[in-house]
Amino acid sequence: MSEQPELRFVTDQPLAAPHPNLDELIAVMAQLRGPGGCPWDAEQTHESLVRYLVEETFELVDAIESGSRQELIEELGDVLYQVLFHSDIAASAQDEPFTIEDVAAHMTAKMVARHPHVFGDATAETAEDVVAVWDDVKSREKSHRTSILDGIPQGMPSLALADKVLGRAEKAGVLEGGSSAVSVADEEELGGLLLAIVASARTQGLDAERALRSTLRSLQDEIRASESAE
């Protein structure tokens, strides 16, 4: 395992600042899932909670896009609670248990390693420089991957999945960016075009979501075939 860079914090605040409200939430979770707690909470698994994690995540997106400050606080809390829930389930696992502390420690190490321009000796003056540094570090971390498509979650909404696949392919030079672009002035016009496509699909009895996913599967097969031929 490679050495983690030494952390350099530029702050007057103590590194281990107390978080009493967060600690209390963790304690509430432990009581709910512990002896004498809530039967429903106690019987949940990572798999049974997936639907709630997805739902809470989309509710957070709604709050970010059009909600109030209070709605954003509430939805962030719901997503945070899902993280704590999964961590508490893992803490009581018979095989390879872990806790929320392990999750936090892993994330800290990951963020430090991927920001050598902050915690190390690398230089990144612009946002574009930061992305380049991030991609370089990530490629070394994920050197075991054999395809540019590895690590893309196929369960993403189809439009987000399409953007991810095209972005990876263009960055690797497998596809030329904008080769089949439709000219639109802004996101409002783009939204209208997408809605018209879905409406047209409905009128003709077609499933727009399934159609895009099918096309993406074919595109990913082509990309992997191209990689294998190199």
Automatic annotation (TrEMBL):
GO BP, one annotated term: dGTP catabolic process
Residues in NTP pyrophosphohydrolase MazG-like domain copies: 44-119
Pfam assignment, any one: MazG
Keywords, sorted A to Z: Hydrolase
Signal peptide stretch: none
Listed CDD domains: NTP-PPase_MazG_Nterm
Gene Ontology molecular function: nucleoside triphosphate diphosphatase activity
The name this protein goes by in its record: Nucleoside triphosphate pyrophosphohydrolase
